[in-house]
Amino acid sequence: MNVLIPSPLRSYTGERSSVEATGATLAALLDDLDSRYPGIRFRMIDEQDGIRQHVRIFINGEQVRALDMPLRASDEIIILQALTGG
Amino acid sequence: MKSFMPLKIEPPKPAIGLVGLLVATRKGAFIFKSDKARRLWKIAGPMFFGHIVHHMVLDPRDKRTLLATARTGHLGPTLFRSTDFGRSWKEASKPPAFPKAPEGQKGRVVDHVFWLTPGHASEPGAWYAGTSPQGLFRSEDAGDTWAPVAGFNEHPMYTEWTGGEQAGTPDGPKMHSILIDPRNSRHLYIAMSGGGVFESVDKGANWKPLNSGVAADFLPIPDPQYGHDPHCVRLHPLAPDILYQQNHCGIYRLERPGTRWERIGMNMPKKIGDIGFPLALHPRDPATLWVFPMDGTQVWPRTSPGGKPAAYLTRNAGKTWVRLDKGLPRSQGWFTVKRQAMTADAHDPVGLYFGTTSGEIWASKNEGSNWSCIASHLPEIYAVEATELAR
């Protein structure tokens, strides 16, 4: 799957804005992403598996709030940093 | 208890090398390096530009390893390590994090890592970290992976001691001032805003409050066991039975094995008071320390009283205090100096340094007798740590 990475997290992806990752659920995809780019998951997801307050994840344009969301190989994942703070 | 035994350590000779200042700010970290006279300073940085860095600390055991805590306004907390004094950095592979809560229960989440303390000299590679909300964590591998200290974080009294999520400083409750008895690696102190000071004699497995005699004017109980707001607690490495505390409600001294703090801040000038954040110790004289008072009246501006910043010095463990303001603004100087932002080097005379929330670093080469501004226009400064650089 194609995953779009926001600029604050591109230090983990070698400054790439788009990377590949796989997983049957969003949780599995994030685990795969973390195995490829160590440390990236914890900056987005807290230790209670909550999506951090200022991080937004969209699947095919729909915002998701739970990590157990099932994924298909054709899905497009967009990770964004929320526009907060003025 | 073995900890309360005389320490048979000769006072170290004064440092003569170059001084390094590890400066943590709201927008990144900087390293200042002095010349031999401590007059000219070179600045490296910003490192982790845009990150909120609460603390950067050198490992005194190898004098090379630096740890720095970091988060951004939008991303989660992490921690970076350098083994070449800041030339290159690597992120911790497992930063401090609370355990995952059982299904259906609310678990705690580390908002930021606030405090770092290198472990005991006999435990190379060991470090402690304090977080917001209050949590104690330990690393055995020089800061690469971190584990919760369950003896505190899961203590049955944790919620009562810490007061829950609402009890703490305006930018989040914090654990800080993690102190290790140089005679005994199992003997620890911690401090929390809020919560108070706590002691462990079994390497963190069990804890007891140590707050007797400390005021908590914001609580309805006259002498509570816990719930206090220590801002900064220091243990003198040459006299580890002597603790000093700058609290939300005064300046205190405790001599162990005693358990009742004495309010030495009562000897401060009444118009200045004894409220402040930082407290710095003389490296060779346990009776000498410096504080930087702030305005704790009415709505707590937390700035220099009257807009006239000054450090205060005692050379007799708080019996008398001397104002040190030569070189500092005479008026309209509304400094706030945070709890990790004042430090002393090991030279003779001792060099003192403090950073302000308005991004200035002030230095004194003569124990506070004269001050000069060595940097301005930095981001808001959270911490300044002085280190001796290899010659």
Q: Would you write up a description of this structure?
A:
The complex is a heterodimer of chains A (86) and B (391). Chain A has a single domain, classed as Beta-grasp domain (Ubiquitin-like (UB roll)), CATH 3.10.20. Chain A starts with a strand and ends in a 5-residue tail after the last strand. Chain A is built from two helices and five strands. A five-stranded mixed beta sheet of chain A has the order 2-1-5-3-4, with no helix packed on it. Chain A has helices at residues 26-36, 40-44; strands spanning 2-4, 18-20, 55-59, 62-64, 76-81. Chain B is mainly beta and 391 residues long. Chain B is built from two helices and 27 strands. Chain A binds chain B through residues 8-9, 38-39, 42-50, 52, 54-55, 81-82, 84-85, and chain B through 72-76, 78, 91, 93, 95, 97-101, 106-110.
| Separation of the first and last Cα atoms of chain B | 40 Å
Can you summarize the main beta sheet of chain A? 5 strands, mixed
Q: Largest sheet of chain A, order of strands side by side?
A: 2-1-5-3-4
**Secondary-structure element order of chain B, N to C:** EEEEEEEEEEEHHEEEEEEEEEEEEEEEE
What is the topological layout?
The complex is a heterodimer of chains A (86) and B (391).
Chain A: E1 2-4, E2 18-20, H1 26-36, H2 40-44, E3 55-59, E4 62-64, E5 76-81
Parallel strand pairs in A: 1-5
Antiparallel strand pairs in A: 1-2, 3-4, 3-5
Chain B: E1 19-25, E2 28-34, E3 41-47, E4 56-58, E5 66-70, E6 78-82, E7 90-91, E8 112-118, E9 127-132, E10 135-139, E11 147-148, H1 150-153, H2 158-162, E12 174-180, E13 188-193, E14 196-200, E15 208-209, E16 230-236, E17 239-247, E18 250-255, E19 276-281, E20 289-293, E21 311-314, E22 322-324, E23 342-344, E24 352-355, E25 361-364, E26 372-375, E27 381-388
Antiparallel strand pairs in B: 1-2, 1-27, 2-3, 4-5, 5-6, 6-7, 8-9, 9-10, 10-11, 12-13, 13-14, 14-15, 16-17, 17-18, 19-20, 20-21, 21-22, 23-24, 24-25, 25-26
